[in-house]
Design a protein that fits this description.
Blueprint (H helix, E strand, L loop, with lengths): L2 H17 L3 H6 L2 H20 L2 H8 L4 H16 L2 E13 L2 E10 L3 E10 L4 E10 L3 H31 L1 H4 L7 H7 L6 H10 L4 H24 L16 H6 L1
Antiparallel strand pairs: 1-2, 2-3, 3-4
Helix pairs in contact: 1-3, 1-4, 4-5
């Protein structure tokens, strides 16, 4: 049996020991019990972070907690670099039947806070979740925040420009106001049919000044006739029944 296979079997045994810690010991919550949990978790993390990909796939096959752990480690190891050591491990009772194990792990590029959650019941203590938080420097955090802000601003401006473009298209969708026939005639009489031009002329009122002038002339003529009748009155009297327009030549002679 080669060294890699021995290491994989050792990892699986550690996982088995971690799962079947007697619940009675955990409920006792004495220092010795927590010391045992901390030692097991430290060995477990050290072996997980140094195991081969083949071994990780073997661990991943257990699903649940181990699926989460291996998937997270595949994503984080490209950032953290190679494993160096487990600096500290601390287990505490979080209540509600749960134990939280906080570990500080040193990698080649970063320190990381690793948290493992254990559920305890009457029969066993089972790992249920795994979280790794990489300790980025303040400069890296500010750079990342600036990048996120820049991306957000770019997205906002792109959306605004797109909305402005959509709104500008509304003018092509709104129907134009239909011009009246009279306005068309004023602009270009040739484009209006002859019948419509005649109708327009009929609807246009006559010159009011000319009509008033003709009424004044008729009044003057009537007054002159009335004055002549007073000098030589007619037995039957004189009555103006109507004044009719007979043509422009008649009015000129008057």
């Amino acid at each position: 049996m080669n060294r890699t296979k021995k290491k994989n079997i050792f990892i699986l045994l550690l996982l088995f020991v971690l799962i079947v810690v007697p619940a009675g010991q955990v409920y006792a919550a004495d220092e010795e019990t927590y010391d045992e949990i901390e030692t097991e978790v430290a060995s477990f993390l050290e072996n997980v972070y140094t195991i081969s990909d083949e071994g990780l796939e073997s661990v991943r096959g257990s699903s649940g907690f181990y699926e989460i752990l291996v998937r997270s480690w595949y994503e984080d190891r490209e950032i953290t670099g190679d494993f160096v050591e487990v600096q500290s491990v601390e287990a505490e009772d979080a209540g509600n039947g749960q134990i939280i194990v906080n570990s500080v792990v040193e990698f080649e590029n970063y320190l990381s806070d690793v948290v493992i959650y254990l559920n305890k019941d009457k029969e066993s203590t089972t790992p249920v979740n795994y979280v790794m938080n990489i300790r980025y420097s303040m400069a890296e955090k500010m750079t990342q925040a600036g990048q996120n802000m820049a991306v957000g601003l770019i997205v906002v401006f792109v959306v605004l420009i797109f909305l402005m473009f959509i709104i500008s298209l509304f003018r092509f969708l709104t129907p134009k106001k239909k011009e009246s026939t009279v306005e068309k005639t004023k602009q270009d009489p040739a484009v209006v049919p002859v019948a419509e031009q005649a109708s327009i002329r009929d609807n246009i009122p006559e010159n009011t000044d000319a009509a008033n002038s003709e009424e004044e002339i008729a009044a003057v003529i009537a007054a002159a006739i009335a004055a002549a009748s007073e000098e030589a009155p007619s037995p039957s009297g004189y009555v103006v029944r109507s004044v009719r327009r007979r043509g422009r030549s008649v009015w000129k002679r008057v």
